[in-house]
Amino acid sequence: MDETDTETDSLTGCRYHPTFLSSTESLRSRASSLNYEFESGNQTCKSTKKVSKATFSIRRSSPPRQADYYWGQHYADVMRAEPMPPFLLDVRSDIMKLLNVPDFSPITVEPPAISYGKVGDSVPSLNSCIVNLYNGDDSVVTPHHDGQAGSTPGAQKAVVAGTSIYSLTACDEGAERKIQLYAPQPGSTKPGKVVYEKELANGSLFELPAAANGAYKHGIPKAPKGVVGARYAFIFRTVVEVEMSVLEERKREGDRKLAEKAGKRGGEGESGGGKRPRKGKKRGPTSLRQDKQMNVD
Length: 297
Ligand SMILES: O=C(O)CCC(=O)C(=O)O
Prior knowledge:
Elements: E1 7-8, E2 15-17, H1 25-32, E3 48-49, E4 51-57, E5 68-69, E6 79-80, E7 82-83, H2 86-98, E8 104-106, E9 122-124, E10 128-134, E11 140-144, E12 158-159, E13 165-171, E14 177-182, E15 194-200, E16 205-208, H3 210-215, E17 217-220, E18 231-237, E19 239-240, H4 244-266, H5 286-294
Parallel strand pairs: 4-7
Antiparallel strand pairs: 1-2, 2-16, 3-11, 4-10, 5-6, 8-9, 10-18, 11-17, 12-19, 13-16, 13-18, 14-15, 14-17
Bound molecules: 2-oxoglutaric acid.
């Protein structure tokens, strides 16, 4: 990384390191063989459209697939993270070394009640990585905040307040995408005008400070028509994990309620399978609806 070309945005505090990696070839080839559990069009993550996702955690627990990812919707699938593979652990330590990220980050604001952690505890920094695969001009991430303890009511999986979110781009030539930050619109869930925009180059690292995540929604808009090729975003975050069994129970409960509703409407009785709600339908209890209003992922 050449530190002299790092750019800091004076309004939002976002930092952009255009030359974090000189080559992304091996990263792209490893990323292409990851297991993308959430495929394009899956509606469980409400901000991403036609983006595939794989999630990883550094938590080394037994059984190994214990860590989780959850988007806070009542009826969403609960997604478990895999242990971070060695190549992602290497990227993580490069980021930490080059940007002086401490090994541990303190939890400074109250995380959700079902979290593995409380104020005063520390968690390993950048303990979570999501790999987003964009494959076409209509892969988008709509404006959202990442759920952040203290600034996001109802966030089920909290990003530790005070730590930045890092997105490393590895993409084919011509498949670069823009990130945008949007002005807040008091009293409205709609994003305001774009206050920051950056095309994220192959090999670049984008840093979204916690304060900017709290103050501005961010998103990846559509690419110009006809853009082809893959873009991988490796998004490292410091998170407080939540109790998996509670989430799974919530999902079962949500599925049961849906099945009951479907039974009442269609006279089919309890199906047990749990139909997915159609987009735009009201769903979930109040605390989780707050997530929806905030558009939190
Ligand atoms: O693709 C990126 O660089 C960022 C994506 C993002 O904001 C998200 O998935 O929440």
